[in-house]
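Contributing new complexes? Match this layout with heme C.
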Amino acid sequence: MKQITLLMLALVVLLAACNASIPPSGEPTASAATSSGMGSGMGMGMGQQNGMMARHSAPIPKAYAGLVNSVTADEASLERGAELFTTHCASCHGDGGMGDGPAGVSLNPAPAPVAHTSQMMGDDYLFWRISEGGAMAPFNSTMPAWEGALDEQARWDVINYIRALGSGAVQPRQGMGGAALDPTAQATRQAEMLATAVAQGVLTPVEADVFAEVHTAVEALRVQGMENMSGDMNSMQVEMLAELVQAGTITQEQADTFGDVHTRLLDAGLME
Ligand code: HEC
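Output block (do not edit by hand):
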């Protein structure tokens, strides 16, 4: 089980891989040093890098931990979710759930790119956050609490919908504004981040390739297999990597390299 512990450690960082903390220009950001005072968001914005790790590693309260979505993500649920999201969430989170709605522009912390983060976080985390909002540490945000306004089914419907937005199973509705999840832009950001890491001597080109390959496999699995996953991101990611090794998609060695590379990218400040 030692192996697993190592993976868990490394996987805290996996999350950040999807949001490499490096702007499109290719310059690493000093994200650790700028934990407040972030100004306007730039779409797939600055705010979400800032404090994202703190958010996503916050302990899930007992009342929520382990909760599993009880509503099947069928057409009816997605339709209800779309309605709810458009009415209640898109103003801040954007039509595509990328955190770039018009009402979110001046918020600090900025609205999260929920289409994206819903691919990484478990049912319990999402249900907790939507139920109770952000008026508490470590969030301290204007994210409203919805438990009074939306019944449980509605909260699961909206979770089904943001997951579907993030996986590309549904297209954003127009209305509030904001971009759709853009896998190409994300891939470009990641490639730039890796190129920077290689240029700085943090990684060898071979390690960068392994990282990119494993990351792609994890993403593919995530899109297929989000049903009924709960727990924090560590356990979800550990499961995914183990599953990929077991399926022969990646080798144990690649999984280990992946973890190691993550740690070094983190240490180098290239990822949050
Ligand atoms: C007034 C603006 C606003 C509205 C409206 C709003 N949110 Fe948020 N939301 C935020 C902000 C700001 C954050 C980031 C800070 C935080 O996590 O508390 C956030 C965070 C979240 C998170 C946590 C994501 C993560 O990565 O940790 C989820 C899930 C979420 N919102 C879902 C929703 C849903 C679903 C709705 C509609 C039912 C909604 N939000 C409506 C502002 C808003």
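Reviewers usually confirm one structural detail per submission. For this one: Residues 182-272 form one domain.
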